[in-house]
Predict the structure.
Amino acid sequence: MPETGGGAIAFHMQFLSDNSARVHPKVWEAMQAADAPDTPYDGDALSTRLDDAFGAVFGREVAVLWAATGTAANCLALATMVEPHGGVVCHPDSHIEVDECGAPGFYLHGAKLLLAGGEHARLTVDSVTDVLDAIRDDVHRVQAHALSLTQATEDGCVYRPDDLAALTALARKRGLKTHMDGARFANAAAFLGLSAAETCGDMDALSFGFIKNGGMSAEAVVFLDPSLADVARWRRKRAGHLQSKGRFMAAQLLAMLDGDLWLENARAANAAAAHIADGAGDRLLHPVEANELFCRCSPAERDALRARGFVFYDWGPDAARFVTAWDAREDDAAALGKAIASL
Amino acid sequence: MPETGGGAIAFHMQFLSDNSARVHPKVWEAMQAADAPDTPYDGDALSTRLDDAFGAVFGREVAVLWAATGTAANCLALATMVEPHGGVVCHPDSHIEVDECGAPGFYLHGAKLLLAGGEHARLTVDSVTDVLDAIRDDVHRVQAHALSLTQATEDGCVYRPDDLAALTALARKRGLKTHMDGARFANAAAFLGLSAAETCGDMDALSFGFIKNGGMSAEAVVFLDPSLADVARWRRKRAGHLQSKGRFMAAQLLAMLDGDLWLENARAANAAAAHIADGAGDRLLHPVEANELFCRCSPAERDALRARGFVFYDWGPDAARFVTAWDAREDDAAALGKAIASL
Amino acid sequence: MPETGGGAIAFHMQFLSDNSARVHPKVWEAMQAADAPDTPYDGDALSTRLDDAFGAVFGREVAVLWAATGTAANCLALATMVEPHGGVVCHPDSHIEVDECGAPGFYLHGAKLLLAGGEHARLTVDSVTDVLDAIRDDVHRVQAHALSLTQATEDGCVYRPDDLAALTALARKRGLKTHMDGARFANAAAFLGLSAAETCGDMDALSFGFIKNGGMSAEAVVFLDPSLADVARWRRKRAGHLQSKGRFMAAQLLAMLDGDLWLENARAANAAAAHIADGAGDRLLHPVEANELFCRCSPAERDALRARGFVFYDWGPDAARFVTAWDAREDDAAALGKAIASL
Amino acid sequence: MPETGGGAIAFHMQFLSDNSARVHPKVWEAMQAADAPDTPYDGDALSTRLDDAFGAVFGREVAVLWAATGTAANCLALATMVEPHGGVVCHPDSHIEVDECGAPGFYLHGAKLLLAGGEHARLTVDSVTDVLDAIRDDVHRVQAHALSLTQATEDGCVYRPDDLAALTALARKRGLKTHMDGARFANAAAFLGLSAAETCGDMDALSFGFIKNGGMSAEAVVFLDPSLADVARWRRKRAGHLQSKGRFMAAQLLAMLDGDLWLENARAANAAAAHIADGAGDRLLHPVEANELFCRCSPAERDALRARGFVFYDWGPDAARFVTAWDAREDDAAALGKAIASL
């Protein structure tokens, strides 16, 4: 990690993480409007509106729970799909495999992650089929119970509707439930120019991320198969994630849906990323289809960029990661793009 | 539960739960002041100040983690003390036994709660000793690894320093770590008129509650034995409780400590409770030593109170629970006290 | 425990535990007959006969798995019935609550045991109803998913068919699956003079014990609801209980069923217990309905009995437990009965 | 799997699995000699001799527990070394990764297996170092707590003392505990011509296998670091692996140690494997250093071998696995070798 000194960062030069970004003013407003006594936990007037509000976005009946982190959202969703003796097919670069300190092992009581490859962190029908075919159908082997993929992927790339249709068809044929980690789902939808439903495909559950996109502390677990939500409610409480003042969680989500703020914010972040991509050219390790860029970049080059005030993470010895957020200024992004181009 | 209709409640008549109360303005201010890019998770400038800030309150070196709920705080603390094959001595009415949907079983990987009695939900040296003595020291029996008690108790009562000293001495003699569930720790300290350190005694860890006391979504796990904190950090991430914008969590806690807002709020809540207690007289099932009152109250009497606008929970068939919060108005509390007196 | 010196015990004076008893010669024969190469695990010719063999005993289709201990059998059965966020209603004296070092917490991933009382360790419709009624139906409380009872009970008493019918009817009405811990199921059947099916009632699964009854190392998990067995097979492997030379496990069970050896052995043990009971008279703490006796007996009296060569466990400060096994000699049992009578 | 029909196999043509082999007569004798009443569980005269008996074999103080399967032995050993939030470095082909239905996830409460490569299923200092170096030292990543390797490996190959010394040195430097899965430890020792201590190296714990080597149902968990054994005792009970008639488990182990029967049996199995290897020539996929052979072998060739009465498993589409056991006849092995040579 760069030496950020643990202190505040001049935000306009900040490409460290969308996790570092500010909270959108409309989210603040909605939270403050929620500051009146109401039924605790998720019995309040806002939490009880979530199913309908998200149902309108997805054009179908859904059941929705708020959760404080993407890790919790992913694990609560998967816990409804995977028995302790089962497994989840996912990509080796997936957040659940790499970045959650084994949270799926905790929430799924020791279930196993079964790794299938694919360029740009995108699973393919072939890679998933290979993994499934290699699992001998006897009690010595962990059987796959679910498939989990990330939209946009950890490499900043996007599944197209056809990709999703093929993967969910495969999953259903093989008896797997399906989960989408949508930490940057909004950026994927914005890039594709498609609806939430089209961006999600026929998944059983979606971790719909808002925190990286201008929220503060609320993600949504959207059960497109609403029958799964009941188990998730028990598991959320049992995991200590049923916040007592849940109205502030619901307020964030509703503010984000209102007027499609989620899409507006994602478009802004993606636009900034596109500006940087213009300068990055063939340094790019992956197509830029959301708000993350991974660039070949030597240590000396990274030093040079940092000397000019840009803040970002190293990505291994020879690359850098730049992430844009909803509040990135076009000028700054363009400046970074130019700076990279001039290296 | 009363039929609150899932909607907003006229707050001045609200004695349902301190969980329903508003967020203190100073907490809002601190959160908004934190709305600038910073290192994500708990690497930000505010989170890294917590150890020192709480250390100053407790007059000793401590290690502090924020957590989103009391359930998470309790379980993260206990997870550092109890092996999966061990147990936790606690009261049958304790929150960890009754109200957390088995969260300790989840976080402690199946460890057992071992129940010891005591009036007003207060453990005693005798009751704990009886439980410990009854555990045959062989591999067939779950051995106690920790003792957990609640300050103020689930019946709204308070352990005195002598009580705590005797219990922690017993625990240490028997090789148990110690944990205090301080969901209403502030109310206990305010009632006792003692410092945080005196109110806590020589515990290894404290779940220091703020949400019921004017916070929004942040509790503190205070490790008075700082060596326990390292394990808790892994477990917090693994439980999906490491929020990416942790600065908003830390901001709440720091605001609460600043100028002893936590004590000021608790004193207000306790004062309101005392007003009600004045009217409740010998209807009270437990001494009122914090901000909760449990009153004998028939269904007809409860109807009468509700008809006058008071909002509260039934507590079994023949009682009612009234809880005051930091924002209770003295007038309303006095009115409730009178209403009860006139039943 | 008595000071047995960790060495061999003169068996004819041994009333310590049916766990200490010898292996029946017919079990030895069957094991040795199984000593030829066969498909490993449970694919062998003997293991694959178990469903039919037990089906014949119970007069219905069942699915049967062998397991090495009663603890494993109980937990594997319950693991098919109880989700990690659920609970099991059982007696405070039940083996799963008291004597398994928290194994249910391990196998059920933190599910909770919910204790219902009853004399002689027998659950009653009233005690179970009280427990169930006290569980508020919301996510804060662990809900019961299963009912588990022990036949014969830990106090050596027996449920009659009417008792079982009432309890299983209650369980079904309340949505609970049902499990019987039959560590001494044979002794119960022998006492009742009823068939296995009548002794078991309409349970979903039975841990059918053989080890205390002349076996060496094999218990049977009998799924009277065969649809539950599939999950149990995965869990057995995952718990390290799928032995590679499973044919020796199956051989023990088949030998026990052959010619109703299980009943013959249990009748012998029960008969010996009845002899002792004759002498124990009103010292008995519980009716003697199987092969265990619990007698009031002071330390001095216990010393006197031990001085005469009888080996048994203390049962708290003022009682002794005597257990008879299939190989108890009538003479020895009668001698013990007389010795107790003469105290 | 071949169609073995679930029935008994003509043993002299049997190269299916050492799990299918018979029990050695001396093991039977020892078990029958143990058939007298004794203290149940592991308090008997034989179980209490295990520490000394294995201590003599290893030339150091050890603590030893019996367990019914290799899976249980591995997991009980690892459970003393790995916290739930940690991980175990092991080979992708290791039994704990591939063949235990996720048992490590169960016993280690969701800890993660971290895969390091190496030819012939042998970990190398380089492959382990790469895995460890890639784990960023922060709470988002599962940290390695232990290293587990298999001796002989799943490909039938053996670590030399230098290999072990380098790997254990690396592990200690990086703060990892060490575990050896010795399902075929005896075959490794026999191949190397080295003592148990040299074959094991400086591991903290060894799963010492006997079942594949002429035993019936007992493996030994040998804690070369005896301080780890205490936790394992609790975990064994909690996993339902503390058998009540443990004397029959201990008897098997002691019989195996007596007169180095374990080595004698392994030498016989290895010798048979060498005969087959003579005929297999360059069809061998791995060096034959124990009692397993993996040969390139087309479906037609496998049919031809089976037509001649040889029983074995397919190993993927183009290979076969042959395993020899203690009771393999040299003639049969030589015949198989010739049959392969003549394909």
Q: What stands out?
A: The CA atoms of residues 90 and 115 of chain B lie 5 Å apart. The longest strand of chain B covers residues 143-150. Chain B has two domains: 11-22+262-341, 25-260. The two ends of chain B are 21 Å apart (CA to CA).
